[in-house]
Amino acid sequence: MSRLQADGLYKVFGRAPDEAVRRLAAGADRGELRADGTTAAVIDASFTVDPGQIFVVMGLSGSGKSTLLRMLNGLLEPTAGRVLFDGRDLTSLPARELRQVRATKISMVFQHFALFPHRSVLENAAYGLEVQGVPRAEREKRAVEALELCGLGGWAASWPDELSGGMQQRVGLARALATDADLLLMDESFSALDPLIRRDMQDQLLELQKRLKKTIVFITHDLNEAMRLGDRIAVMRDGRIVQLGSAEDILLRPEGEYVASFIQDVDRSRVLTAAAVMTEPERDGEGECDCPSVSPDTPVAEVCAVSARVPHPVAVRDADGNVAGTVPRERLVAFIGGQEPDDARPVPCAWAASASAKEAAHA
C-alpha cells in the first residue's frame, strides 16, 4: 500500500469555488476563471508516494506546488478531492484528529528555517516533541540524536544566530527527524542556501535517506535538484501535473514542449546512470575480462571516464559482480548528444562505403 495518495485534488480561491471545479473538470483553463475573480491554484492533481520514496514536485513560481504540499498535511483544505495517508482519508478527519496526525506522523521542513531565535539549537530541535507532550529528558535525548544525525552534535547549546544558513537548515531537518514522523514535507527547503551549501544539504539528505528510509515529498523549482533527489518527479505547470515519472522518464521521454524546454539545459551525464544506457552484451563473454567496470547506478559522466580507458564496451556489474549489461562508446556519445539510448546506434556512412569500394577496386 502507498504511504501517501493524492486523489483528484483541486484548490480554488475566490468566488464560487465548487462551480469553478466543475468548469475546470469540463475543460476550462484557469485563465478563464481568473477573469471572473477566481484563482485555480491546483487542478486535478493525482499521484501516489510509496514508503521510503523521495517524491519531488517541481515547477516554476505560481505553478501550484506549495499549495499542493499544504493540502497534503491539511494546512489547506482541498476544494475537491482527497488525501490518503496510510489509508486514512485526511480530508475527512475531525480537526482534533488531523492535528494529532500532523503532530506525530507528518513533519515539515520550511524554506527559511523557521527557528526560534530565543531558543537554543537543542530546544529548537526538540520543539516538535515538546508540542507532542514528550517529557523533557526524553525529548532532549531524541533531539541530540537527531542533531548528531545531521552533523550538529557539538552545537546543541548554541543559538540560531551563531550558525550559518546551512547549519540552521540542518537544525530544521533535525527538528523534523526528532519526531520520528513517517512523512517529511520539504517546501523549497534548500533554495535559500548558497549553491555549495545547497549541494552539501542534498548530499546530507541522500545520506540520511539511505539510513532512515523516510517517505519524503520535496518541493523545488530547481530541475537539477529534482533530478538529483527524486525517485519520482511530478512536473507542474499552471496548477496541473503535466508529467509524472522517474528522472530517466522525464529526461529521455519529455511529454510536451513545456517539459522538453524545461530539461534542455540539464547535464544528462551527471543525472542519469549506466542503467539508462546499457544494453545486452553483443557477444558471449563480453564484459567478463578484468578491465575496469561500473555499477548500474554509476553516473554516465563516470562511465565516460571508464570508456576512455578500455578498448571495448564498458561492463556494468550488479551487486554480485555479474555482468548486467555493457555500454558501447557510440551509445555514450549519442546519449550525451541528446539522443535516446535506443537510437544510439551506428549509422551507415556513405563516404566510408564509397572509400571501401574504391579500395576494393584498386586491390
From TrEMBL:
<dbReference type="GO" id="GO:0005524">
    <property type="term" value="F:ATP binding"/>
</dbReference>
<keyword id="KW-0547">Nucleotide-binding</keyword>
<comment type="similarity">
    <text>Belongs to the ABC transporter superfamily.</text>
</comment>
<keyword id="KW-0813">Transport</keyword>
<dbReference type="InterPro" id="IPR003593">
    <property type="entry name" value="AAA+_ATPase"/>
</dbReference>
<dbReference type="Pfam" id="PF00005">
    <property type="entry name" value="ABC_tran"/>
</dbReference>
<dbReference type="InterPro" id="IPR051921">
    <property type="entry name" value="ABC_osmolyte_uptake_ATP-bind"/>
</dbReference>
<feature type="domain" description="ABC transporter">
    <location>
        <begin position="4"/>
        <end position="263"/>
    </location>
</feature>
<dbReference type="InterPro" id="IPR003439">
    <property type="entry name" value="ABC_transporter-like_ATP-bd"/>
</dbReference>
<dbReference type="InterPro" id="IPR027417">
    <property type="entry name" value="P-loop_NTPase"/>
</dbReference>
<protein>
    <submittedName>
        <fullName>Glycine betaine/L-proline ABC transporter ATP-binding protein</fullName>
    </submittedName>
</protein>
<dbReference type="InterPro" id="IPR005892">
    <property type="entry name" value="Gly-betaine_transp_ATP-bd"/>
</dbReference>
<keyword id="KW-0067">ATP-binding</keyword>
<dbReference type="InterPro" id="IPR017871">
    <property type="entry name" value="ABC_transporter-like_CS"/>
</dbReference>
